[in-house]
Design brief:
single chain; alpha+beta; Alpha-Beta Plaits; 4-stranded antiparallel sheet
């Protein structure tokens, strides 16, 4: 008797050939292609700078460093803590100066674009600082979200 009731209920609820109503899924929010957000705990930004514009780039990075290192905003302090910028001794394949922004750990959802942060943190910065910064870039930065494959000081774990 119970089995007949359940099968009758199923027939009433889902007529033959009908598919269950599934709410439409929202498309994912569009990702800004220029974003410098990372999906892992370690991130790298590789920035190629025109060889004759390194002083302009370094001035902008120094201004950003000053703003971030003195920031009292709880959202900005973690950005500064894990962010280091290195200048490579060797140029890239096209002769440009290469800067490596190493971020460990990354802050989930944070956008590490120097231009964006300079705009937000230095509203009173000279207009030419941003213009020179943008002109110094030889190409768009390369963003890398890294996952550790091996730690060479530790013996591998057998799988």
């Amino acid at each position: 008797m119970f089995a007949w009731f359940v099968s009758s209920l199923l027939v009433v609820q889902a007529p033959a050939g009908a598919s269950p109503q599934v709410p439409p899924q929202q498309p994912p929010a569009p990702v800004d292609p220029a974003s410098a957000s990372f999906t892992t705990d370690v991130g790298l930004l590789l920035v190629s700078v025109k060889p004759d514009k390194t002083a302009d780039y370094e001035a902008a990075i120094a201004a950003l460093q000053g703003a971030l290192s003195s920031a009292t905003d709880a959202a900005r302090r973690p950005l500064a803590q894990g962010w280091r910028v290195y200048k490579a001794s060797e140029p890239d394949a096209k002769g440009n100066a290469l800067y490596v922004h190493a971020i460990l750990p990354t802050v989930p959802g944070a956008d590490y674009r120097p231009s964006l942060l300079l705009d937000e943190l230095l509203q009173d910065a000279p207009v030419e600082l941003m213009a020179k910064y943008k002109d110094a870039l030889a190409a768009a930065p390369t963003r890398l979200s890294l996952t550790e494959l091996a730690h060479m000081a530790v013996a591998p774990i057998k799988k």
